[in-house]
Amino acid sequence: MKIPYSAIRFPKTAEQQWAFQVNRYVRRTRELTQWAKTPSTASNSKIYWGTLKGISNVTAPLRLSLTPYLSSYLESSPVINNEGNSTYSNSFSYNAGADIKYGIDDRFTIDMTLLPDFGQVQSDDKVKNLSYREVTYDENRSFFKESVELFDKNNLFYSRRIGKIPSGFYSLDSQLNPGETVDENPSKAKLLNAIKLSGRTDHGMGIGVFNAITDNTYATIKDSAGNSRKVLTEPFTNFNVLVVDQQLKNNSNFYIINTNVIRDKHYDDANVTGSGFTISNKKHL
Question: Which of 19, 86, 133, 155 is 20 to 30 A removed from 202 (C-alpha atoms)?
Answer without folding.
Answer: 155
